[in-house]
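ok new one. same drill as before - structure tokens go in, u give me an amino acid for every spot. 403 of them this time. try not to just spam alanines like last time pls lmao
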């Protein structure tokens, strides 16, 4: 008699709300609901396309049979192009560059190479669920720090200070932030640098949305502000160049060589063991970073209109407030109610077909309720979705008031 296969304990707390919500959405679809997807940040599902020269270069590399293994840290021309990008970001103390299977792999490799079981990493809350999933797998202790909604979702420096302990190894920044769309100020970045230097922490700077900025805002890479602080800056092609399926990302390590040397060797041990990132797609990095960038102008014109529709319509709903995003294509509205956001979202999808993600899937200050929207769809879809959310929210509140 075969016994049940028991999964590893490290998987018990792994969740990914963005895709987990699809289970509920599929049930709504089977019940005949028209689904309006505001849950997944994939530009290619909507009216966004990658620059033609990026796709053509990749196709050409495949036809030239660049289909074998690549060097573990990436092909030379890609690494050189990323080094040029680091220069444009004013990161002029680069120690190492490595190409990975999406920024997600870079993040996992760098965390794995640094953090022992029982140690912790300061993780933004709200923040991208990948970080907590990796921490669970590595058996790291949870150590969330909060973003301040009243201060435009900037990191709460006093909260960060209070969370640092003897087992803290690093601090993660997502800037621009997913799920809030916030863009961090120079003052906040410098305060974080000071904490990292004081406590010998590595800064993991997730800057995957650094070119998707609103209202003429400028992105400042934290690694550019100090030559001594240990930083790994994550980037990639997925969001800025609309090729999430290419799974091409990278890490840029900077700081003092004598401080980072052993850690960088640990990273490279893992990179060598997994052989290489996708090979032909790496040939897209140079033309993407060094070629025509006009696709960003067109994209930001669309996204600005959709951001404004999102903020205006959600703030017009009594009981919902929404901080104006400054980057990326997400918003993180607040539900001013006591009922769990997961319940609100599940019932919303079932009744209206509008697919959003509960704020609890990204983390939030205890006692608050939120949801995340992706404003990649066109204005007509967004308007229809937000009208449905407004009508449903009124009904939802009243049903619990009467009960």
């Amino acid at each position: 008699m075969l016994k049940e296969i028991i999964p590893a304990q490290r998987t018990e707390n792994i969740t990914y709300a963005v895709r987990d919500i699809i289970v509920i959405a599929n049930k709504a679809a089977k019940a005949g609901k028209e689904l309006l997807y505001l849950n997944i940040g994939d530009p290619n599902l909507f009216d966004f396309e990658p620059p033609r020269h990026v796709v053509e270069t990749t196709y050409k590399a495949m036809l030239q049979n660049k289909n074998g293994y690549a060097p573990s840290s990436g092909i030379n021309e890609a690494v050189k192009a990323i080094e040029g990008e680091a220069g444009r970001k004013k990161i002029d103390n680069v120690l190492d560059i490595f190409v990975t299977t999406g920024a997600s792999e870079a993040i996992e490799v760098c965390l794995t190479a640094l953090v022992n079981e029982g140690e912790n990493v300061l993780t933004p809350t709200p923040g991208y669920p990948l970080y907590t999933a990796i921490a669970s797998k590595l058996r790291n202790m949870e150590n969330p720090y909060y973003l301040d909604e009243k201060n435009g979702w900037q990191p709460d420096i006093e909260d960060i200070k209070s969370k640092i302990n003897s087992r803290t190894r690093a601090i993660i920044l997502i800037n621009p932030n997913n799920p809030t769309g916030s863009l961090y100020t120079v003052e906040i970045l410098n305060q974080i640098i000071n904490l990292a230097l004081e406590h010998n922490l590595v800064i993991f700077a997730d800057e995957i949305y650094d070119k998707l900025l609103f209202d003429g805002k400028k992105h400042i890479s934290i690694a550019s502000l100090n030559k001594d602080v240990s930083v790994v800056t994550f980037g990639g092609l997925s969001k800025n160049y609309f090729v999430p399926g290419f799974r091409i990302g990278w890490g840029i390590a900077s700081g003092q060589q004598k401080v980072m040397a052993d850690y960088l060797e640990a990273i490279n041990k893992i990179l060598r063991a997994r052989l290489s990132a996708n090979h032909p797609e790496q040939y897209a990095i140079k033309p993407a970073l060094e070629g025509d960038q006009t696709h960003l102008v067109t994209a930001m014109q669309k996204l600005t209109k959709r951001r404004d529709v999102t903020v205006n319509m959600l703030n017009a709903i009594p009981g919902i407030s929404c901080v104006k995003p400054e980057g990326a294509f997400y918003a993180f509205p607040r539900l001013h109610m006591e009922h769990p956001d997961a319940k609100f979202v599940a019932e919303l999808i079932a009744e209206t077909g509008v697919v959003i993600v509960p704020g609890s899937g990204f983390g939030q200050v205890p006692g608050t309720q939120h949801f995340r929207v992706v404003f990649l769809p066109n204005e007509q879809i967004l308007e229809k979705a937000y009208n449905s959310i407004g009508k449903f929210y009124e009904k939802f509140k009243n049903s619990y008031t009467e009960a």
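The first helix runs from residue 17 to 20. and btw The chain has a mean pLDDT of 94.
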